């Protein structure tokens, strides 16, 4: 993950791919619904 990606996530300007969302959900051990609302 690049610094630009982290910056975009922190500023709510990141639109992750569906595969990335599922992988992140698995790694964090959290359901997608738990944290996906922060991207909306």
From TrEMBL:
Any GO molecular function? DNA binding
Source organism (scientific name): Schinkia azotoformans LMG 9581
Q: Which domain of life is it from?
A: Bacteria
Chain ranges of the HTH cro/C1-type domain: 1-35
* InterPro entries per record: Cro/C1-type_HTH, Lambda_DNA-bd_dom_sf
This protein's name: XRE family transcriptional regulator
């Amino acid at each position: 993950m690049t610094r630009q990606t982290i910056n975009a996530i922190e500023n709510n300007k990141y639109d992750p791919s569906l595969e990335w969302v599922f992988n992140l959900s698995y790694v964090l051990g959290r359901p997608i619904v738990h944290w996906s609302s922060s991207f909306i």
